[in-house]
């Protein structure tokens, strides 16, 4: 009897010291990777994945929060990326439109699994100076969200606390950056152009960084050198700031700053242009600075793209920013003047 009791207590002790296994996660996966729109033929392609045999699958399209179209339920199964194509006219909507696709799958056991795509913004830039300028890679208004309003869907993720608020001394909205808060997008080689133009509208009260630098848009190494681009502003005098650019070419580091100071406490439109011939700085629709280019930018890095800081968080912006656009070519003078004319 005593032996049985000891054995029983020993077994209880062993069980008490055993860790409970984690619950087995469902192996069923459903994802909508992306929806793509082709203006040429009006087709909308939905890229999706589903790794199990389903009872039924349907695709539901939303304009904003309103359902505008849904497919007839069908079965679907694929371990790779598959596509579903519908026509824009079938959605019976007008432009501009913020479009999402919901993939709704009913399993053989009756469970419903859903996944929703990132938004696709269609038509918001039609007949605007930004949309009319070819080779626009991304355009972030930064007024109500952090989405890209081109068809490329280079949407940004917020890190830290950012505020949508009015830009001082104007009647327009913007995003206010402070306390190292910034926006980021994982590496996408599309955003590594060798020739580029970057346009931004900003408002600064001052620059209080230890190095007197604020980063606006960067895909550069934490040190500030290396491949890709680094678009920032610098404080060299108390009465204002300069546009500051830098690059590494054939192993040599160089930087270039605008000659004149841009006053603090005044909303300003600035553009950086870089191609194989020239590097230019534009302020409020006027070309203020130009030098001979050392060559096209090296575009070999895989750093994330950041707005409001450099990758790795350095020289973080305190100020207001909106309407950031990146093109994979040099904008011409008329295109830049047309964009600048949008601002008071």
Walk me through this protein's architecture.
This protein has 344 residues and is mainly β. The chain folds into two domains: 30-119, Sandwich (Immunoglobulin-like), CATH 2.60.40; 124-340, Sandwich (Jelly Rolls), CATH 2.60.120. The protein has three helices and 24 strands. The strands form four sheets. Strands 9, 11, 12, 14, 20, 21, 22 and 24 form an eight-stranded antiparallel β-sheet that branches. Strands 10, 13, 15, 16, 17, 18, 19 and 23 form an eight-stranded antiparallel β-sheet that branches. Strands 3, 4, 6, 7 and 8 form a five-stranded antiparallel β-sheet that branches. The radius of gyration is 26 Å and the shape is elongated. Residues 5-26 have low confidence and may be disordered.
Task: From the structure above, extract its key features.
Immunoglobulin-like, 2 domains, eight-stranded antiparallel sheet, elongated, 3 helices, 8% helix, mainly beta, Jelly Rolls, 344 residues
Please specify the SSE layout and strand pairing.
Layout (H helix, E strand, L loop, with lengths): L1 H16 L12 E9 L4 E8 L3 E10 L2 E5 L7 E10 L9 E11 L4 E5 L3 E3 L6 H4 L3 E5 L16 E3 L3 E4 L6 E5 L4 E4 L10 E8 L9 E6 L11 E8 L2 E10 L2 E6 L4 E2 L4 E7 L3 E6 L2 E7 L12 E3 L11 E9 L5 H8 L4
Antiparallel strand pairs: 1-2, 2-5, 3-4, 3-6, 6-7, 6-8, 9-24, 10-13, 11-12, 12-24, 13-23, 14-20, 14-24, 15-16, 15-23, 16-17, 17-18, 17-19, 20-21, 21-22
């Amino acid at each position: 009897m005593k032996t049985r009791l000891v054995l029983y207590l020993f077994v209880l002790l062993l069980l008490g010291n055993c860790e409970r296994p984690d619950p087995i996660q469902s192996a069923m996966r459903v994802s909508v990777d992306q929806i793509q729109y082709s203006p040429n033929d009006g087709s909308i392609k939905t890229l999706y994945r589903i790794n199990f045999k389903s009872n039924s699958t349907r695709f539901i399209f939303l304009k904003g929060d309103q359902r505008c179209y849904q497919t007839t339920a069908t079965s679907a199964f694929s371990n790779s990326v598959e596509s579903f194509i519908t026509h824009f006219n079938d959605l019976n909507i007008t432009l501009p439109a913020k479009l999402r696709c919901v993939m709704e799958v009913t399993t053989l056991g009756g469970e419903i699994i859903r996944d929703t795509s990132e938004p696709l913004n269609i038509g918001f830039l039609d007949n605007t100076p930004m949309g009319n300028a070819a080779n626009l890679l991304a355009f972030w208004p930064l007024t109500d969200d952090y989405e890209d309003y081109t068809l490329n869907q280079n949407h940004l993720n917020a890190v830290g606390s950012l505020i949508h608020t009015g830009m001082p001394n104007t009647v327009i909205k913007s995003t206010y950056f402070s306390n190292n808060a910034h926006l980021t997008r994982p590496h996408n080689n599309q955003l590594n152009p060798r020739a580029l133009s970057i346009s931004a509208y900003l408002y600064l009260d001052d620059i209080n960084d230890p190095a007197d630098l604020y980063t606006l848009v960067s895909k550069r190494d934490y040190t500030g050198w290396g491949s890709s681009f680094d678009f920032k502003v610098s404080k060299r005098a108390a009465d204002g700031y300069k546009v500051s650019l830098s690059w590494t070419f054939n192993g040599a580091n160089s930087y270039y700053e605008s000659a004149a100071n841009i006053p603090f406490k005044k909303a300003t439109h600035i553009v950086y242009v870089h191609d194989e011939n020239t590097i230019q700085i534009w302020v409020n629709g006027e070309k203020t600075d130009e030098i001979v280019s050392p060559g096209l930018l090296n575009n070999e890095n895989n750093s994330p793209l950041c707005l409001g800081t450099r990758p790795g968080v350095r020289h973080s912006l305190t100020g207001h920013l909106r309407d950031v656009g990146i093109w994979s070519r040099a904008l011409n003078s008329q295109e830049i003047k047309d964009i600048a004319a949008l601002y008071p």
